[in-house]
């Protein structure tokens, strides 16, 4: 009975497998023979697939071996070709050396002559790159540079071109010329304009000075100066020369160094750039200076008006509350029956009440005058710290690296002194007016006390 159940379970399991693989018969309709045939059929199909897979593998292996042999043959052929080319290269190199030796032997003294010609062409090309005359005759330096870099002997035309270019440059240095050329403004935009050139010294158009500069990855070109010279009448002289016609002459401003002074002028910082070099400390000094000057001027004006009012009160007998002396005189008149000693105390008290009003704000100006150079010293220390840090990181090979810290150190010192000196002068003048008013009050008070004492006696 147990065996029968086991067989039945196996049959049901086989039927389930057949149903799962797409069989259409139910488990109750399948016999053991069907299952056996199905198993044999599956084994036969698997064997057939294995044979086909093996045959494909063997075929691909044979093809890969054939390709490998083909590649090896190509590599061997390439190595042989490389050896042949290398041998040919060595032979050509030896032949070139032989021909070079033969050429040098045949040239004789002419070799040194042609070497001098190449050197002259290179020197002249470098000179023409920075010459404003090249704006009138463009393309000369490119031809000369080609001659200087050529490996072959220069031709007669090239030698004549070197000579003619020298003569052209010499003649151009003695002329004032007007011509149309492509110019570049400070924004990098090009335009065609009439250019006036004074020898090799300066070139200008529309009153603006131009110079020959090396553009990035390009040939030199006539470029407007970033900063025009503020020398007296420089730009007006440029316009006069550009518009002048007829006999005689007119004044013109030139750069005798052929552009070097103009380049230095462009690189030199203006007042705003100098101030910006002071950094944060420089801005703080400027704020302290501005606040101190405003307070000092207001106080100076107030004391000047007060001093004038006191002097006017001296000439009048009737007191006024609008000035310190008038208020002291009112204190005198408010105590008509007091003796001299009591009156002296009353007047001293009135004078002492006026002194703080007169000296209010003076100490603040004095403090600002003392703070300004201290801030300048602080900026100097900060600038030197920056300089030493740059030296530690980059060494002392390039002075431009240290220029920023040194500029801050010196500029803040200058700013501190510039701020302190006017503030000290303002404090001195204001303090002088204050002391003058106090002295007048004390003199008038002493006079009133003496008058009272004299009337009592």
TrEMBL record:
Residues 331-442 form the MotA/TolQ/ExbB proton channel domain. GO terms for cellular component: plasma membrane. Residues 1-27 form the signal peptide. It is a multi-pass membrane protein. Its main location: membrane. Belongs to the exbB/tolQ family. This is MotA/TolQ/ExbB proton channel family protein. GO terms for biological process: protein import. Residues 32-88 form a coiled coil. It holds the Pfam family MotA_ExbB. Keywords: Cell membrane, Coiled coil, Membrane, Protein transport, Signal, Transmembrane, Transmembrane helix, Transport. It is found in: Cell membrane; Membrane. The chain crosses the membrane at residues 284-306, 367-386, 406-426. InterPro entries: ExbB/TolQ_transport, MotA/TolQ/ExbB-rel, MotA_ExbB_proton_chnl. PANTHER family: MOTA_TOLQ_EXBB PROTON CHANNEL DOMAIN-CONTAINING PROTEIN, PROTEIN TOLQ. It comes from Parvularcula marina.
